[in-house]
Structures are given as C-alpha cells and as structure tokens.
Write a structure and sequence with these properties.
The protein is mainly β. It contains two helices and eight strands.
Length: 141
C-alpha cells in the first residue's frame, strides 16, 4: 500500500455484539470544501463510542462500514478545503466530531471547520484534546 494514500485506523466492520474491532489500513480521507484534514496527535474514546458498534445508535448515527471509532481529537492541520477561512496547514487544533459519520482513532481525520478550534499554546495535544468535554452537549463545548 502507498503510505501517502492510506492510514491506520481503529475500525469496526459490522454492527453486532461482535463488531470485529481492530486496526485496519484504510484510505486516507480527503477534506470537502468546508473541512480540514488533521494529523491526529491525541484522540479519545468515550463510553458512547464503545456502544456505537453494537448498533444501539444506528437509527440516529450514520456510519459507512467499516467505520473508524472515536469522537475527540487534537492534532495539526495538514490540508484545508477550498472554503475554509479560519485555519491553515500547520495550525494546531482540537475538535469533537461525534455524530459526524467519521472517527478520530486514526492517523488522520476530517473535521468540519465549524467543529474545530485552535489549540491553546500553553497546552500539549493530550491536554487539549476534548475528552473532558464528552459529557457536554455540542453547543456547550
């Protein structure tokens, strides 16, 4: 595999009590016009992330299988879509991408510009990644 076009990710392959969770080589995502491509330096797995592969939330959360797990991340922007105005490659950011049909437990993740924020300079990536916000609703993060 060409390492520039693929990446490692923690994925699940089906909805069930045995969802076949494991590391996979998958295609590296390409950001849409309003998205960032972020090289992930820290990611979180929340309790709800563990329940998603069971299918419990399948009626409201839509993932294309195999799907990447994880909701929260901190990392560095490597590419921006054509309509992104607040970020540029090299910016350190953090985001919560819960319920967006994509995951954070991977080498790279796509993040809507509206879901990202600049990482405070006085925090490292682990401190900045939003796992501590997992109990807050999106508008309060």
């Amino acid at each position: 595999m060409n390492s520039t076009l693929t990446m490692k990710a923690l994925t699940f392959k089906r909805y069930s009590k045995s969802p076949e969770i494991g590391f996979s080589d998958i295609s590296r995502p390409t950001p849409k016009a309003d998205e960032l491509l972020v090289k992930v330096h820290a990611a979180g797995l929340n309790p709800i992330d563990n329940m998603i592969p069971t299918g419990m939330f399948k009626p409201v959360l839509h993932f294309q299988l195999p799907a990447t797990l994880g909701s929260d991340l901190a990392g560095v922007v490597v590419e921006v879509g054509s309509r992104v105005t607040r970020f540029k490659p090299g910016d350190a950011v953090f985001a919560s991408i819960f319920d967006l049909g994509t995951g954070s437990l991977a080498e790279f993740a796509v993040v809507p510009e509206s879901a990202a924020a600049l990482k405070p300079a006085n925090l490292d990536f682990v401190q900045a990644h939003p796992f501590r916000w997992s109990g807050l609703p999106p508008g309060k993060r």
